[in-house]
From TrEMBL:
TM region positions: none
Protein name according to UniProt: Ketoreductase domain-containing protein
Top-level taxon of the source organism: Eukaryota
A Pfam family reported for this protein in Swiss-Prot or TrEMBL: adh_short
Gene3D superfamilies hit by this protein: NAD(P)-binding Rossmann-like Domain
Length: 278
């Protein structure tokens, strides 16, 4: 046992020296800020080549610049994840630049909160389009790069779909968001069953309160423009205080960096178990 532990420790040291994701390629959507930005920077630090995607081209390019200044490798592919041409655009750009895809992190999204009885159709439809249809279409487009029949050609490959505790438990004012995030869980389980035989892992991370613009005070005025409309983001200050005091034992929400570390855990499981069992 001690000899095996020594081998594992030695392998971890060697892996860490070149990065846990050395030479691997990751597409991360919604990577211009928040959890996505933290994940992009963390993945690059661990040796991954990162495709930074965001609706805001300027923010995506700033993240790429930050990664490159730290001697990492990244490209920016901006655009609306729900656009018809987006999956082809980002997959083609990734293959052209890096020649392969190891990981997809479907993180892009936003909230469009309304009470159920006042929720309009467009607020329902856009949330389903961005949180469910867009990840599905991107994953489908990338299928040839994941469904690899020859075991000897397979590398560490995974899909991580970001969900929410709203999708597990529901949430006041979030019928659209809760339904979409619940659908993400079902989508992920199906990917695992269909692509598991090809050595592909699929996982969902259902985050609770992470300190991003979606959970900041609505009074701060953050918004996003969708289909030409300004959508207010955030939570009323009174609700924030209630959420923290009633539901979070630590008395605070998680940070984007902490959330990114959880994503890295699932992306790196293949390397860990290969090391442990090899």
């Amino acid at each position: 046992m001690s000899q095996r532990l020594s081998q594992v420790t030695g392998h971890l040291t060697n892996t860490a020296s070149r990065g846990l994701l050395a030479g691997e390629v990751a597409i991360i959507t919604g990577a211009g800020q928040g959890i996505g930005r933290s994940a992009a920077i963390l993945f690059a630090r661990e040796g991954a080549k990162v495709v930074v995607s965001d609706l805001d081209e300027t923010k995506a390019k700033l993240v790429v610049e930050e990664i490159r200044k730290a001697n990492g490798s990244a490209i920016a592919v901006s655009g609306d994840v729900s656009a018809e041409d987006f999956p082809n655009k980002i997959v083609d750009a990734t293959i052209k630049e890096y020649g392969k895809i190891n990981h997809i992190v479907n993180n892009a999204g936003f909230t469009f909160d309304r009470m159920l009885h006042t929720l309009p159709d467009d607020a329902w439809d856009v949330i389903q389009r961005v949180h469910v249809r867009a990840p599905f279409r991107l994953i489908r487009e990338a299928a040839p790069h994941f469904r690899i029949k020859q075991p000897e050609l397979r590398e560490n490959r995974s899909i991580v779909n970001v969900s929410s505790t709203s999708g597990l438990h529901g949430n006041v004012g979030q019928a659209n968001y809760a339904a979409a995030k619940a659908a993400v869980v079902g989508l992920t389980k199906t990917i695992a069953k269909e692509w598991g035989p090809f050595g592909v892992r699929a996982n969902t991370i259902a985050f609770g309160r992470i300190e991003t613009r979606l959970t900041a005070a609505k009074e701060d005025g953050a918004s996003i423009k969708i289909d030409g409309k300004e959508v207010a983001l955030g939570i009323p200050k009174a609700n924030i205080r209630a959420d923290v005091s009633a539901a979070i034992p630590l008395g605070r929400g998680g940070s984007p960096d902490e959330a990114a570390a959880a994503i890295l855990l699932f992306v790196n499981l293949y390397n860990f178990f290969t090391m442990l069992l090899g």
